[in-house]
């Protein structure tokens, strides 16, 4: 484990009175170890106790990944025969004497498969939701992590710029989304994108999570494009809204409102203020203009190894912003049956304020 991350986790474990934590393949395991595994039919579990080497249970075919590590690690590798797995889990857990222990887990990540193997060896142990500990450790990015997110942002912005050159009347949302995926890969994104791009034109844009369809781009449409890239595991998540040919004054007016709300949200962020201050700043612009009910989602969410993680930017979140927190600012206005407009940036809290990591134009660009 990386020393600084390990120290922060130790403190959070002490606060929750945890004897150990158990993690399966996923972002937190990767964050703490630098090891990347995908969820599959073979279980992978990391067991960590403060002041002791982590214990890793994994299939033999994944052992080659361990050549990169430079810290102590006790490895228990099992063959493909599932009948051998229970005994390997028993050996690994007994190595740390965790019976009657308080074991921290991630309920949103831990599958029944891994839980079954842990519980079968630890019938008397308490399985504790340690999500708050993992979130607290991961939500403040160090300089290297911010640089990786910035690189993911740059890749995404270059990919979109290349994609926009291919836009033409009669092109389907589906084809535009596919072209964007191609450009993301060409410009350096890892193949495992943070999410499938959203391309939503005309009335489809009123659905914030619309899936690209065979609807074709028509003159006078607004098109919402929500996309992101991944670089060394870290992601970007951006949104811009474009015009297909000239659009009406109402569309231009509402786009300016969303633009102003986005700017207000980004300007409001600063250390030691609650996350809600950003939501309040962005939302008030839209509410005062009479469109409050058409902005019906939170203003943002944390980004890092996952597309949605802590901190969450909404009116009820009193969590204090701290330097190193990275998240989105993405106000929108959605008019059912007509169109939607959203502008989303990626930002980081600094020692003195809030810095935008994204720079793609926020103006209403006409594509055709």
From TrEMBL:
<keyword id="KW-0472">Membrane</keyword>
<feature type="domain" description="Creatinase N-terminal">
    <location>
        <begin position="6"/>
        <end position="139"/>
    </location>
</feature>
<dbReference type="InterPro" id="IPR000994">
    <property type="entry name" value="Pept_M24"/>
</dbReference>
<protein>
    <submittedName>
        <fullName>Peptidase M24</fullName>
    </submittedName>
</protein>
<feature type="transmembrane region" description="Helical">
    <location>
        <begin position="21"/>
        <end position="40"/>
    </location>
</feature>
<dbReference type="InterPro" id="IPR050659">
    <property type="entry name" value="Peptidase_M24B"/>
</dbReference>
<dbReference type="InterPro" id="IPR029149">
    <property type="entry name" value="Creatin/AminoP/Spt16_N"/>
</dbReference>
<dbReference type="InterPro" id="IPR001714">
    <property type="entry name" value="Pept_M24_MAP"/>
</dbReference>
<keyword id="KW-1133">Transmembrane helix</keyword>
<dbReference type="InterPro" id="IPR036005">
    <property type="entry name" value="Creatinase/aminopeptidase-like"/>
</dbReference>
<feature type="domain" description="Peptidase M24">
    <location>
        <begin position="148"/>
        <end position="351"/>
    </location>
</feature>
<dbReference type="Pfam" id="PF01321">
    <property type="entry name" value="Creatinase_N"/>
</dbReference>
<dbReference type="InterPro" id="IPR000587">
    <property type="entry name" value="Creatinase_N"/>
</dbReference>
<keyword id="KW-0812">Transmembrane</keyword>
<dbReference type="Pfam" id="PF00557">
    <property type="entry name" value="Peptidase_M24"/>
</dbReference>
């Amino acid at each position: 484990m990386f020393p600084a991350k390990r120290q922060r986790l130790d403190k959070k474990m002490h606060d929750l009175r945890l004897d150990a934590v158990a993690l399966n393949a996923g972002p937190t395991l990767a964050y703490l170890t630098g090891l990347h595994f995908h969820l599959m039919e073979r279980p992978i579990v990391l067991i960590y106790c403060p002041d002791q080497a982590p214990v890793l249970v994994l299939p033999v075919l994944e052992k080659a990944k361990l050549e990169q590590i430079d810290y102590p690690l006790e490895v228990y590798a099992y063959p493909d025969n599932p009948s051998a797995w229970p005994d390997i889990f028993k050996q690994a857990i007994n190595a740390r004497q965790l019976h009657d222990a308080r074991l921290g887990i991630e309920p949103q990540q831990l599958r029944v498969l891994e839980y079954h193997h842990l519980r079968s060896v630890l019938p008397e142990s308490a399985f504790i939701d340690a999500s708050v500990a993992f979130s607290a450790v991961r939500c403040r990015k160090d300089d290297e992590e911010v640089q990786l997110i910035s690189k993911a942002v740059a890749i995404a912005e270059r990919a979109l710029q290349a994609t926009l050159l291919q836009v033409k009347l009669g092109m389907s949302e589906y084809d535009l989304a596919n072209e964007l995926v191609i450009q993301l890969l060409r410009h350096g994104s890892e193949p495992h994108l943070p999410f499938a791009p959203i391309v939503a034109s005309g009335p489809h844009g009123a659905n914030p999570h619309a899936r690209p369809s065979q609807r074709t781009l028509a003159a006078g449409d607004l098109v919402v494009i929500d996309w992101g890239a991944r670089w060394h595991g870290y992601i970007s998540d951006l949104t811009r809204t474009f015009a297909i040919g000239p659009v009406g004054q109402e569309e231009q007016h509402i786009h300016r409102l969303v633009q102003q709300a986005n700017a207000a949200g980004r300007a409001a962020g600063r250390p030691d203020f609650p996350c809600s201050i950003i939501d309040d700043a962005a939302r008030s612009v839209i509410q005062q203009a009479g469109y409050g009910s058409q902005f019906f989602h939170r203003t943002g969410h944390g980004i890092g190894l996952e597309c949605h993680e802590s901190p969450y930017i909404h009116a009820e979140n009193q969590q204090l912003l701290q330097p190193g927190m990275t998240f989105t600012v993405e106000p929108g206005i959605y008019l059912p049956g007509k169109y939607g407009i959203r502008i989303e940036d990626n930002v980081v809290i600094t020692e003195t304020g809030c810095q935008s990591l994204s720079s793609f134009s926020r103006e209403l660009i006409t594509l055709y």
